[in-house]
Amino acid sequence: MKKVIQILLICLIIAGIIVISTIGFNVGTKYAENTQINIYIGSEFKIEDIRSITDEVFGNTPVIIQQVELYKDMVQITVKSANEEQISNLNSKINEKYNLENDVSDLKITNNPNVRLRNIVKPYILPVAIVSIITIAFAMIVYRKLGIWQVLYETLMSIVAPQAILSSFYAVTRLPINRITVVISIIIYVASITFPMIHFSKLKSQTESKKAEKE
To answer: Of 8, 80, 158, 174, which is the most buried if we count CB atoms within 10 A?
Structure first.
């Protein structure tokens, strides 16, 4: 069963490499080319109410709605694209909902380019590299009696393999890359540098127990 799982994971990684090299990842609205529309409401509002309006205006198109400004009296609506008719309709419906008199010219509309994934991961590269090197060096020193090269290989694979599997899973399933993806990746990374230490510690204890029994 273990070999079957390993073969499936290898196939997933290969498929992921093919998808990434040909069509790339599917990025979420926040990281894709998008249009941000900032509308000043002047009072606190419920996200659910704005969501009802955006559903009418943009249909099934993914929309990100955020409260901005100190007093949370401005809404920021992020959508992949919005034409003049949709923006005008959006402004009219929000005016009607909150008794406003905003013109389309009063809205702050920003067209953002596609965010490169390398720019998303760039802040994490150096910290991850440093922690990984320290972790591997620590494992090789503390558990050297288990075999330095074996410890190096297992620790390195425990760090690289989960991230490769996660990336391939997102690429093949076409799940959008977003902020949650980054959080998941960090959680997996923390687990990937923790579990080998637990595994090596158990092996070391077993080896020492067997050695004590022989003596």
So the answer is: 158
Q: Are 78 and 30 in contact (CB under 8 A)?
A: yes
Rg (CA), the chain: 25
Domain 34-112 has CATH 1.10.10: no
Contacts of 22 (CB under 8 A, 6+ apart): none
Q: Which runs of consecutive H residues, i.e. helices, occur in the chain?
A: 2-22, 47-58, 84-98, 117-142, 148-173, 179-214
- Cα separation, 213 vs 215, in Å, equals 5
pLDDT of residue 215: 60
To the nearest whole number, what is the mean pLDDT of the chain?
89
Evaluate whether 78 touches 63 at the Cβ level (below 8 Å): yes
pLDDT recorded at residue 131: 93
Question: In the prediction, which pLDDT does 205 show?
Answer: 84
Spatial CA neighbour of 61 closest among 94, 97, 108, 28: 28
Distance separating alpha carbons of residues 99 and 52, to the nearest angstrom: 17
Residues of the chain with pLDDT under 50: none
The model carries a pTM of 0.76
Domain ranges of the chain: 2-25+116-214, 34-112
d(CA 51, CA 99): 17
Token code pair at residue 185: 């990746």
